[in-house]
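>> received
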Amino acid sequence: MRELERYQQAGLSNAAALQTATIVPARMTDMADRTGSIAPGMTTDLILVDGDVSKDLADLRHVDTVFLDGYRLDGVALRQASGLSGMPK
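>> returned
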């Protein structure tokens, strides 16, 4: 998360910063045909956040739901399991 904020501070748009963690590595590893973007037939892990990362990348800290390997995980339960309490600021 902090890395993406640093890219944004260096001049990348929020969208470009997000791409450095998604489609760019998929392209670099010749895996863009199956991962790195959201589309039918793609293998995709997702995080749903409370906020709008197109306006503020810090909203990535406000994880509500995670979809990982086909499983839906609750953000609150994940924070509690890791010993954290409450939503980060």
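>> The chain has a mean pLDDT of 91.
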